[in-house]
Specification:
Blueprint (H helix, E strand, L loop, with lengths): L5 H18 L6 H27 L2 H27 L2 H14 L1 H11 L16
Helix pairs in contact: 1-2, 2-3
Length: 129
């Protein structure tokens, strides 16, 4: 009997896409891939706790599953609200700070999107595009 919940499928999808991206050389930042894989593994184990609790009718496991899902929902909701609270100028400033602070992500973006620079192209800089 093979029973999968949607949370388990999402977690396996996260892990698979991260592995696919690193395997095909689309992503060279191991920190980003590591975080995505860690979130996928975390969601997989949480889904497994919920599945075992439901199959075994174990009240404590179901309670912890409910509490953890509530915490995940609160984090997702607060991040969504914070993203919606940023106006266009603040979003642009945030993107520019991220662009100037990460070299590996910058080269990935330049190579995949075939562009050079964030807003303006400086001729004395090297470009991966």
């Amino acid at each position: 009997l093979c029973v999968f919940s949607s949370l388990q499928l999402v977690s396996l999808l996260l892990i698979g896409i991260a592995a696919w991206g690193i395997g095909f050389g689309l992503i060279s930042s191991f920190r980003v891939v590591g975080v995505v894989i860690a979130v996928g593994v975390f969601l997989f184990f949480i889904a497994l706790v919920g599945l075992i609790g439901a199959v075994k009718h174990h009240q404590v496991l179901l309670f912890f599953y409910m509490i953890i899902l509530l915490l995940v929902f609160i984090v997702q909701f607060s991040v969504s609200c914070a993203c919606l609270a940023l106006n266009e100028e603040q979003q642009s400033e945030l993107l520019e700070v991220g662009w100037s602070n990460t070299n590996s992500a910058r080269t990935d973006i330049e190579r995949n999107l075939n562009c050079c620079g964030f807003r303006v192209f400086y001729a004395n800089e090297t470009c991966a595009a």
